[in-house]
Amino acid sequence: MAGKTKKSEASSSSSRNSSRSSNHREESVVVDYGKNKSSCGYCKSSARSSISHGLGTQSITINDYQDLLDRGWRRSGCFLYKPEMEKTCCPAYTIRLKAGDFVPSKEQLRVSRRMQRFLEGTLDCKRPVESVEDPNASTDTCSRTHLGVSSLAVKESSSNNNEEKDGEENIMRFLSDQVGNGVHACSESGEFPDIQFPKASVKKVSQAKRKILGKGSEDLLYSTNIAFQIAATIKRSLPDQKDGNQGRLSRNITDENGPSPKLIAEKLESFLNQLAKTSGLSVRACNGHLNFYSAAKHASAYESSQTVSVSKGSAASSESKGCSLKNSSENTQVKRRRLEIHLKRSSFDSEEYALYRRYQMMVHNDTPDHVTESSYKRFLVDTPLIFVPPTGDGTVPPCGFGSFHQQYVIDGKLVAVGVIDILPRCLSSKYLFWDPDFAFLSPGKYSALQEINWVKENQAHCSSLQYYYLGYYIHSCSKMRYKAAYSPSELLCPLRYQWVPFAIAKPLLDRKPYVVLSDFSTLQDRESLPPHVSEDVMEVQHDDIGKEDTNDFLMYDDEGMMEPEYGSSDNEQHLASVDVEDGDVSNILIGLTGSRVKFKDLKFAFRPSERSYLEFQLRRYMRVVGEGLAERMVYSLE
């Protein structure tokens, strides 16, 4: 793990946990909200096409929550939800990875190396500066962003021709890295799918070329056609976009013909504005090209050797204003950075909340009134999981079992927080939020690699802890597909709750969104596959899967869930109109007025009509949680 890792425990969990009554403390207590229909945060359908079942929780044991995960449930704060897979618009399959079998892809290795270079000081990036609009830019075809102009940023040199050539190569290499960071930022924010893109190459524009381009090109210095390459890569990697499914891509980069180089270039320009990776130049997106111009009125000052000024300090320092490129002839001492990773019990932290608020508003474009302290606590701090302290006997990891926040701190500055649950068989990743200034480090991917590594390391303390759960995988949502890049992963069958290798599930999901995966779990050779499925798709290529962090991020898992408004629709339905499997509900434990009574000992206390309706509810409840959990957890009527 890059950097020094520290693990600390907060003195208490959320107020909701600390205020629990000591009575019935080691039990799971749930309230059945029933089925709900809402608009979908994934496909953005305006219809109430997202259908799920909800449970409220007063408390839940770590073993019960582990078993709920293995039946397709997830939590948002103290609320549990499970998609009704046959009916919902975007079926969401639980996805997991056995940490010991993980094989990192080339892109994932690049993410680790990029972070290492950043910590070593060889990848030196600073915080963004404010943009200045160019009043001369054409609004219909070109837009222009000023990249932190300083009168001392680019200096004319009297060095010889060799030094001049070296300086130009440094500038082009610097700008290529700058564009590459913008591509990574777009992937992290979900604007681009999470696939391997070609490396950006910025070239010098000759004086002869500027003359051909005519007026307005006098100060044009460098250019790249990376937007055209990105558009072509997306079309090749996501062939289903040609079938009228362009809604799966961000509408900000597509037109009626698919991925648009013009729109991609404009999106990159906006991220270059946010990252501000250079000084003394401005960038303009023109008809799919990214062009770099001198900030001065004439280009002649740039015709000789150039040196981009080096500013001291780390990326996290408040005084940082740009990104530095160290001249090869300078003997500048490299400043190393320190990464610390702190694991703490889930509790409110004002610094974390400030980072979450900034992340939601800058990355997801939330308005300030939607990012309140109460909503943050309800979403990411409150937890029903009953904490289990370490035992030292090889059955519990040193941190214990429960809900945690994993903080990533660089040079004393909080840059990312992963919200996770640590359970007997897995680390379950719930959400990640991060500082937008550090998007170029791919925090979503990097944190996932650290969480996988954490599982591997802690198997020595808890042998049952073997899996990394990435939440839900939605095959029809391009933002979700990055999760399958953590290979070899498995998807949960929505009917029999068996785990099926993704390599088998993918060609089936290519055909239709809802599949009983276990029907095909024994198909291991080409003869067993559907006729149109070739060996090519049986091997999942890491770089053919699209994405954060976000959430990274990776992570976008809970972004698609709406605020729960459960109960009304089912209560109004006639019992005969709802397909509920028969089951013996006699042994379900009912919570009523502080007591725990099995339904068979309580049912005659109800009038016949009340008893009949309660039996219907209990059968529906048993169908969605399973017989074992239905008889272990307390079904609260309070």
Automatic annotation (TrEMBL):
Keywords: Acyltransferase, Transferase, Ubl conjugation pathway
Domain N-end rule aminoacyl transferase C-terminal, residue spans: 351-493
Region Disordered, residue ranges: 1-29, 239-260
Biased composition (Polar residues): 247-257
Low complexity bias: start-end ranges: 10-21
Gene Ontology CC terms, in alphabetical order: cytoplasm
Keyword Acyltransferase tagged: yes
GO molecular function terms listed in the Swiss-Prot or TrEMBL record: arginyl-tRNA--protein transferase activity
Reactions mediated catalytically: an N-terminal L-alpha-aminoacyl-[protein] + L-arginyl-tRNA(Arg) = an N-terminal L-arginyl-L-aminoacyl-[protein] + tRNA(Arg) + H(+)
Top-level EC class as recorded in UniProt: transferase
Protein name: Arginyl-tRNA--protein transferase
Organism encoding this protein: Prunus armeniaca
Organism lineage string: Eukaryota, Viridiplantae, Streptophyta, Embryophyta, Tracheophyta
